[in-house]
Amino acid sequence: VIPERPRTLSAQLAQACGEVEDTFAIKVQHVVVGDCELDERLSAQLAAAREAVVNAAKHAGVAEVSVYAEVEPEQVALFVRDRGAGFDPEAVPADRHGLADSIRGRMERHGGSVRLKTSPGAGTEVQLDMPRRKNEEES
Hints:
single chain, 5-stranded mixed β-sheet, 3 helices, 5 strands
């Protein structure tokens, strides 16, 4: 029997961070302010966030990555930060699709947006903003 995946944003984020910790032997600190049930949009946002954490684990050269999520009535804002190597987004080879497809493409297909702050030597912050359904009831 396959265990049922958690249905809330905070539980899914904790699970994803734990998986990345186990896979890459790094520490992923995560904080969630507020919580909500997952829907298709927020599941896509979590998948994009997981990809951003994996990218940091693979490329930043750090022992720790920070993830912060804030659930608001209108949107969920999620930040993935590292104090690592940073990079020049313009210098990423065209055959590398993590940021373009797995993060930006996934977010945009579901109505969200991505902001990237990085430069060589200055670490990286990926901000993922996803609007919530207007008629969603808070529990």
